[in-house]
Amino acid sequence: MQQVAATPNLIRHPCAVVTTTDGKGRDYGCTVAWSTWASFTPPLVVVSIGHTRATHDAVAAAGKFGLCFLTDAQREIGKYMGTASSRNEDKFASAVVRGHVFRGAAADVPLLDGSSSCLECCVVSEHEAGDHTLFVGRVERAWAGGGAQGIAAADLFA
């Protein structure tokens, strides 16, 4: 082993897209590098969203989110959702994403078809963590894909 700089890429997290809706017909979403399970009972997950992301404010206001774990076949969607801004465009109407979306039945959030799995969550708490907020969500419904393996966030732009 050799000593290296401490960076987030040292820990391999699954690449995921967080989604939500504002209740007025506008959907939001962004690629996130940090998400994890927090509890078995009740089923809780944590997602970390940067304060500057439009999706951050939308999740805080809506109190619900979708969490879609991407496969290698969704690499283009992951890149797009991570670089385009929901402040400037409707990401879900773009040619990259359109046709790959279905509505979650429990939280009524957009979910990405073809993901290795998707979770519909209601926010139960928020915690400030530097330049991000950790949103803790209770899983209301889970969806499983066709068995395709998820990709690591560090590999998205590789």
General description of the model:
By secondary structure, the protein is mainly beta. Helix content is 11%, strand content 39%. The chain is built from two helices and nine strands, in the order ββββαβαββββ. The strands form two sheets. Strands 2-1-5-8-9-4-3 form a seven-stranded antiparallel sheet. A hairpin with a 2-residue loop joins β8 and β9. The two termini are 23 Å apart.
Key terms:
single chain; 158 residues; mainly beta; 7-stranded antiparallel sheet; two-stranded antiparallel ribbon
Short description:
With 158 residues, the chain is mostly beta strands.
Low-confidence stretches: none
Rg on CA atoms, Å: 15 Å
Order of helices and strands: EEEEHEHEEEE
Oligomer: single chain
Span between N and C termini?
23 Å
Helicity level? 10-25%
Total helical elements? 2
Sum up the overall morphology in one term: globular
Q: Could you give the count of β-strands?
A: 9
Structural class: mainly beta
Give the strand order of the largest sheet, numbering strands 1, 2, ... along the chain: 2-1-5-8-9-4-3
Tell me the fraction of residues in β-strands, as a range. 35-45%
Major sheet details? 7 strands, antiparallel
Mean pLDDT: 89
Question: What is the strand and helix layout of this fold?
Answer:
Layout: E1 16-21, E2 27-32, E3 35-39, E4 44-50, H1 54-62, E5 64-69, H2 75-83, E6 101-103, E7 110-112, E8 117-129, E9 132-144
Antiparallel strand pairs: 1-2, 1-5, 3-4, 4-9, 5-8, 6-7, 8-9
